[in-house]
Write a structure and sequence with these properties.
By secondary structure, the protein is an alpha/beta fold. Among the domains are: 10-169, Rossmann fold (3-Layer(aba) Sandwich), CATH 3.40.50; 274-384, Rossmann fold. Helices cover 35% and strands 17% of the residues. The chain has 14 helices and 14 strands. The protein has helices at residues 21-29, 71-83, 102-113, 133-140, 154-164, 203-214, 227-234, 248-254, 264-272, 275-281, 309-322, 357-369, 377-384, 388-396, and strands spanning 10-15, 47-53, 57-63, 90-95, 118-122, 144-146, 185-189, 218-222, 240-243, 261-263, 293-297, 327-331, 344-349, 374-376. Helix 11 packs parallel to helix 13 (377-384) and helix 13 (377-384) crosses helix 14 (388-396). The longest helix has 14 residues, at 309-322.
Length: 405
């Protein structure tokens, strides 16, 4: 079985002010990318840097403000620091001067709440030994690395990171695992419309093409207008068809019911989304009532077109399907969710091609904890257009060919 690699893992650096967080990052990167100062509180908002870690690959390192900051501005910095916990795959907690107390314990409690692994680095170990090292390692069942930025143990730190980076970063299966076999033909339907980027394909389409090749398959790419003539002229019967869900009705009409059909967004939902909760949440669309609020989660920032999928098309399709007057809010990027999450009747997450599975799971966690239904863009589109059962069948196996007839 082919394995997959998620988007770059994110590693957050946490600790009190002036413990050497920025210095540690500069050592790892080998550049003076983060500002280092003896003045406490130099780092304000979280700062990201993409690096290559041997044995891990491209990685995002996040430098955060001190967890012991104070005052009105300091509280805002701490809030930003703790928001970063929701989208990291591993936390590195920096200790120095034998300081370990309530600030660290609160931080660790929040990290544990998100199910995120963490390790400790004892910085400035050349100045003083960490007296409670053994106690911390036993209590939290993790490791502490003695570290000094003047003679940094980068190799040891890299090995420590590799040991504790969760296996979910390295998916046990790829996008198309269990869907295709050696030599299969995969047909990809990719419309070129107003939302298509100039001169290139969108990331999910590129990822699927690469995954088809990695699985020793043959990928054929065409627009929705060419489906019928291509199938008629070539007599090719694909092993799998993957369509942009915005043209899923056309694909459903053109592709024989004995050929598995799904959408790019549904494929991503299964690969890195909270698929089980999506399956539970999507049918709740039919229960929406007048005045219900729906939260749309976009995982990247992009130019909003007049026919934007998340801000225009899906709201219009949902309104037409339910016949209800619905309210929609949008959160883009990895910005914090609204505090009153219980105000929403439904949360709809995009495919998440730009973020990791961990980030998607943690982003949806407040809604799931509050028993609010969640789904994703592609599954929502398929549901309101009446092809939901068909596009999830390749993953659930609940439908036979006869069920499509």
């Amino acid at each position: 079985m082919k394995k997959g690699k998620d988007i770059q893992p994110h590693i957050g650096i946490f600790g009190r002010r002036n413990v050497g967080k920025s210095s540690l990052i500069n050592c790892i990167i080998g550049q003076d990318i983060s500002i280092v100062s003896v003045v406490a509180g130099t780092t304000t908002d979280p700062v990201k840097k993409s690096i290559e870690i041997p044995g891990i690959g491209p990685t995002i390192i996040i430098d955060t403000a001190g967890i012991d900051d104070f005052g009105q501005l300091g509280e805002l910095r701490i809030k930003k620091t703790k928001e970063a916990i929701a989208y990291i795959d591993l936390a590195i907690i920096i200790l120095s001067n034998n300081n370990f107390g309530e600030d660290e314990q609160k931080l660790i409690d929040e990290i544990i709440d998100f199910g995120t692994p963490f390790i400790f680095v004892h910085n400035k170990s050349d100045i003083a030994s960490l007296q409670i090292k053994e106690e911390i390692e036993i209590k939290y069942k993790t490791e502490i690395l003695d570290f000094c930025t003047f003679s940094p143990q980068i190799e040891q730190l890299s090995e420590l990171i590799k040991r504790h980076l969760p296996k979910t970063v390295y998916c046990e299966y790829s996008l198309l695992s269990n869907l295709v076999s050696y030599g299969d033909i995969v047909l990809l339907i990719t419309p070129i419309d107003i939302e298509a980027p100039e001169g290139r394909l969108i990331l999910p389409q590129i990822q699927t093409i690469r995954d088809a090749l990695d699985n020793d398959c043959i990928a054929i790419i065409l627009k929705e207008k060419e489906i019928d003539s291509f199938l008629k002229q070539t007599k090719i019967k694909p092993a799998l068809v993957i369509s942009d869900t915005q043209v899923i009705l056309k694909a459903d009409a053109s592709i024989s019911t004995d050929i598995p059909l799904t959408g790019f967004s549904v494929l991503l939902a299964h690969y890195k989304g909270d698929f089980e909760h999506y399956l539970q949440g999507t049918p709740k669309i039919k229960d929406l009532k007048d005045g219900d609020r729906i939260l749309m989660l976009e995982s990247c920032t992009h130019h909003v077109s007049c026919d934007d999928i998340g801000r225009v098309k899906i709201p219009r399709w949902l309104t037409n399907f339910t016949g209800k007057k619905l309210e929609f809010d949008v959160v883009s990027g990895l910005h914090a969710l609204p505090q009153n999450i219980k105000d929403y009747a439904l949360i709809i997450q995009c495919g998440g091609c730009m973020i990791t599975r961990k980030q998607i799971i943690n982003r949806l966690k407040p809604a799931i904890d509050a028993n609010i239904p969640v789904t994703n863009f592609g599954m929502t589109i398929a549901y309101v257009q009446g092809v939901y059962d068909r596009v999830i069948a390749p993953f659930t196996g609940k439908l036979s060919n006869e069920d499509y007839l």
